[in-house]
Amino acid sequence: MPEACQFLDGCPMFAYFCRAAKKVYREMYCEGDFAACARRQLRMENNPVPDNLLPHGSTLWDDHQKPPKYWE
Ligand code: SF4
User: Fold this and answer.
1) Is the residue at 6 inside a domain?
2) How does 25-63 read in b/e, with b if 16+ C-beta sit within 10 Å?
3) Helices (DSSP H) in the chain: which residue ranges?
4) What is the pLDDT along the chain (72 residues), one digit of tens a residue?
5) Residue 45, in any domain of the structure
6) Which atom of ligand 1 is nearest to the CA of 5?
7) N or C: which end of the chain has fewer CB within 10 A?
8) Nearest to 49 by CA among 21, 22, 11, 17
C-alpha cells in the first residue's frame, strides 16, 4: 500500500488553507487514512470533485456560493 495519496501533488484542496490547516489535513488524510478521503473517493470513481469538498465530507463553503474573496 502506498504511503501517501497518489493525488497529493497538486491536490487543489490545499489552495484554500493556511499552513497549519494544510499540515493537519495532510497528516490525517493525505499521508494517513487517504482511503477515507471523500475527495479521493470521488476521484477514484472518475466523478467530478467539487472545489469546496473537504476530506471528511463537509464543505468549505456552501455549494451555491463561490469561495470567499480572500481565497481568490
Ligand atoms: S485531500 Fe484527499 S485527494 Fe487530496 S491529496 Fe489529500 S487524500 Fe488525496
Assistant:
1) no
2) bbeebbebebeebbbbeebeeeeebebbbbbeeeeeeee
3) 19-25, 38-44
4) 679 999 999 898 888 888 898 999 999 999 999 999 999 999 999 999 998 999 999 998 888 888 877 665
5) yes
6) 8
7) N
8) 11
pTM of the model: 0.88
- Structural domain count, the chain: 1
Establish if 49 belongs to a structural domain: yes
**C-alpha grid cell, residue 58:** 463537509
Cell numbers at residue 45, please? 470513481
C-alpha cell at 52: 469546496
CA of 57 to the centre of ligand 1 (A): 12
Residue whose CA lies nearest to ligand 1 atom number 3: 40
State the distance from the centre of ligand 1 to the C-alpha of 48, rounded, in angstroms: 14
Cα separation of 40 and 56, whole Å?
A: 10
